[in-house]
Prior knowledge:
The chain is an alpha+beta fold.
Amino acid sequence: xxxxxxxxxxxxxxxxxxIGLLSSVVMASLNSARVKARDAKRAAxxxxxxxxxxxxxxxxxxxxxxxxxxxxxxxxxxxxxxIYSPNAANLSAxxxxxxxxxxxxxxxxxxxxxxxxxIVGGTDYCILFWRTPENLKNFGSSLVNYARCTGIDxxxxxxxxxxxxxxGTGLWAGGC
Length: 176
């Protein structure tokens, strides 16, 4: 009597197909978890920047003054813009006593990143995370910039503009 040893080609192909299907499900779940983790880091960092700006205000009587020009911690397009009061080369230098320079965990380059603007005299400010949030459903409604975004689609993407979150005071309390 002959005994069959090993697996047939069909059995091996079925096993490989099942493993492929399971790995794709795991990878999709892992990617979703990574997006949520990066967005959670962004939500924490916007609050840390806000605390740093408010601490600066408590010590100096005004917010870092950009003269209505956007500046940034990490955006190549905006980070070279100076701070006028205090006289600082950039936002990182102006707030170095209050916070280490944060940067988006998944930089898109160009004009995206952690942006900051204040009006002349440093009485109001806005912190805007521009084009970096990956799923707006991961943020509280108080952070979503409805001045720029008319709604959120089923995938957590902004309708009418790029994804962004913000905190602001005075003039920019409702969005920037």
